[in-house]
Amino acid sequence: MYHNILVPIAFDTDHDTTAPLKLARMLATPDARITLLHVIEHVPAYAISYMPPDYANETRKAIEAQLNEMAAALPNAVGEVIEGHSGRSILDWTSEHNPDLIIIASHRPGMQEVIMGSTATQVVRHASCAVHVVR
Fold this sequence. Notes:
The protein has six helices and five strands. With 135 residues, the protein is an alpha/beta fold. The longest helix has 18 residues. It is globular.
């Protein structure tokens, strides 16, 4: 049983968010803190000029609302949104908040992930706590 669980949430169509949340509920102690974390990737400078002026703020609000809705279904859960590169930002967050478990979803790896790496792979390789990968 774990006391401080991090569940990185990706809203991609190929990531299932229900399985990691079910697992967090099963592995959490009754008083465990569960953090649902979403990392907003930076929009490249060349593309930002094509975005509406309120794009970043509206996107952040929508993601926060969705995370809070998901967190409301779990005991002692909170949603948090940060910005940066997904893998590195998740690892930085863990060094500051010391979870004892990370539950991360991963899709089936294809050639692109073998060559370039994936967020789940980076977290598994460099996390200082237990990592449970859900497919």
